[in-house]
């Protein structure tokens, strides 16, 4: 009981200090605009290793529901050609207007690829990696944001459920090492907070912003790694005449609880036995 009381008191004191600090700088514009707008853009593409095709982007800002204005935004991206798929999402859905917001995101593509580095240290070889090719990828998830003091202080949590089918593994020169049809899925979770001590969240002219995130990646199998990543992103905005100078500092720290198995020969032989 005493520990809970201490925690509650500490939280209230911290909240008071944060409020006193951030309200010392006033916002110069409305942080929850509700003016409706939209945009459509063509997306022709030609990417090495991916092919070519055409896509269309559509975005709608502050979608009204009848006569009720909201902060809800919608974006859609459709792509066809050698790579085809759809990306869609809603942002700033007001669960509790101007306090609790929800983002929703979904993605489906017929193919893709990503690099896996054998060593991620500062002195590692940037060419020491493998390329994993995917025959299809789907993702669904979202973010919940608790925002206070005119969006100057926020706490958020993000979760994505991802499903992939691994079709091939290649070396860094594109040579085929192994073909497969292995399906796997996993869940990505992260948590964070943001202090936005600026005169405007979207277009800051002065102030500072600090974003902290914690992303946990527990082991999904006996061969996969178990680790978490913490990131710190600080940006200062300094007025210089009619312009603004932005200075950014970023730090990411990965803590490995258990190393994964990177022996490709062993992993291939194990997959063949399954």
TrEMBL record:
Name the record gives this protein: Bacterial surface antigen (D15) domain-containing protein
Query: What organism is this sequence from?
Result: marine metagenome
């Amino acid at each position: 009981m005493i520990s809970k009381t201490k925690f509650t008191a500490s939280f209230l004191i911290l909240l008071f200090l944060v409020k006193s600090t951030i309200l010392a700088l006033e916002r110069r514009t409305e942080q929850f605009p509700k003016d409706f707008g939209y945009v459509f853009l063509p997306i022709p593409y030609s990417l090495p290793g991916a092919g070519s095709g055409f896509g269309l982007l559509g975005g709608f800002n502050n979608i009204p529901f009848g006569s009720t204005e909201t902060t809800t935004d919608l974006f859609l991206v459709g792509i066809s050609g050698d790579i085809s798929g759809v990306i869609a999402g809603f942002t700033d859905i007001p669960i509790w207007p101007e306090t609790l917001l929800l983002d929703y995101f979904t993605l489906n593509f017929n193919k893709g690829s990503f690099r896996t580095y054998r060593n991620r240290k500062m002195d590692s070889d940037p060419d020491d990696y493998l390329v994993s090719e995917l025959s299809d990828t789907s993702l669904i998830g979202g973010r919940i944001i608790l925002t206070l003091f005119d969006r100057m202080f926020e706490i958020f949590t993000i979760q994505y459920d991802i499903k992939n089918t691994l079709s091939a593994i290649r070396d860094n020169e594109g040579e085929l090492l192994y073909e497969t049809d292995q399906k796997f899925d996993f869940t990505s979770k992260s948590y964070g907070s943001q202090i936005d001590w600026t005169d405007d969240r979207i277009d800051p002219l002065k102030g500072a912003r600090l974003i902290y995130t914690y992303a946990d990646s527990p082991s999904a199998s006996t061969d996969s790694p178990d680790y978490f990543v913490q990131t710190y992103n600080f940006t200062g905005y300094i007025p210089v005449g009619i312009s603004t100078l932005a200075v950014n500092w970023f730090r990411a720290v990965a803590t490995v609880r258990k190393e994964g198995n990177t022996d490709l020969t062993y992993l291939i032989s194990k997959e063949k036995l399954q």
